[in-house]
Amino acid sequence: MASRPSPTVPKRQVGQALAAHRDAAGKSREDAADALECSVSKIGRIEHGQVSPSASDLRALLDLYGVADQQRHEIEDLARDARKRRPRTTYGKAIPNWFRRYVALEEAATEIRTYDEGLITGLLQTEDYARTLTTSSPLHNPADIEQIVKARTARQARLLNSNPPDLWAVMSEAAVRLVVGGPHVMRAQLGHLIELSSMPNVTVQIAPFDAGAHAATGFAFTLLSFPDSGVDVVYLEDLTSASYLDKANDPQRQRYSMVWRHLTAAALSPNDSIRLVDTLRREL
């Protein structure tokens, strides 16, 4: 099932190109902000691919950086793609504003690496499991429950596309032992996890209790990689907000890649992980 390309990738490409041309021209973000008569933070958001520059802002920046015609045309074409809006969805209002940026990034990512402590990874949840989790939280409006579940299902559908992302999900053993929704729901969830793990683009590992503490103990996180080969994004979520580490030279962001390597080495192999999941499923 193909989908309309996300504008997130061209946004990132425009931002990266502008940052590179600014550096080559010996200009600072302050110089760019002066040219646009805007804040330095706006320049940062453009360069990080969070927002698309307007046509007039883009012309001003390309003039400031002295970008040659051919490169200029390529960036302007990317910017036009970046300004395109995706069709509205029926579940838009059910997704909080702070989560919408993640949904766009996830949709554009070619690789998703994620660690979860106590819950099955969202992209691998069944509808009943997701519905139980959503219903159990007082933070969700009951009228939005089905829309939230539908939004999660729509995100999962990309795993089955003709050009799916690679999903590498590591979970604590607690995630596959916590009985969400009762034995029937959990049995189906573990079966779904086993089924999806057989797909060539999905890798599942379990960090077992008997291995003790590991590099990510107590800290869930997601690493997103993109087809533009730019900076990976680290996504960190709490109950009511989220943060993104996406600066190229941010040592905090780089530490998550190091922790990921240690985490995957400490977890069970994919085959042993699925054997454990199947054992727990049979015990329910």
Q: What percent of the residues sit in helical stretches (DSSP H or I)?
A: 40-55%
Number of helices: 12
Which stretches are poorly predicted, pLDDT < 50 over at least 5 residues? none
Number of domains: 2
SS content category? alpha/beta
Number of strands: 6
Strand percentage: 5-15%
Radius of gyration: 21 Å
Sheet with the most strands, sense and barrel status = 6 strands, mixed
Order of helices and strands: HHHHHHEHHEHHEEEEHH
What is the CA–CA distance across the termini? 34 Å
Second rung of CATH, namely the architecture of the largest domain: 2-Layer Sandwich
Looking at CATH, which topology of the largest domain would you report? Endonuclease, Chain A
The rough form would be described as elongated
Q: Looking across the biggest beta sheet, what order are the strands in?
A: 3-2-1-4-5-6
Topology overview:
Layout: H1 8-24, H2 29-36, H3 40-47, H4 55-65, H5 69-82, H6 97-108, E1 111-116, H7 127-136, H8 145-157, E2 166-172, H9 173-177, H10 182-197, E3 202-207, E4 221-225, E5 233-237, E6 242-245, H11 251-266, H12 270-283
Parallel strand pairs: 1-2, 2-3
Antiparallel strand pairs: 1-4, 4-5, 5-6
Can you offer a commentary on this structure?
The chain is elongated. It has two domains: 75 residues, lambda repressor-like DNA-binding domains (434 Repressor (Amino-terminal Domain), Orthogonal Bundle); 191 residues, Endonuclease, Chain A, CATH 3.30.870. A six-stranded mixed β-sheet has the order 3-2-1-4-5-6, with helices on both faces. A hairpin with a 7-residue loop joins strand 4 and strand 5. 32% of the residues are buried. Helix 2 packs across helix 3 and helix 10 packs antiparallel against helix 12. It has 284 residues and is α/β, with parallel strands linked by helices. It is built from twelve helices and six strands. The mean pLDDT is 89. The two termini are 34 Å apart.
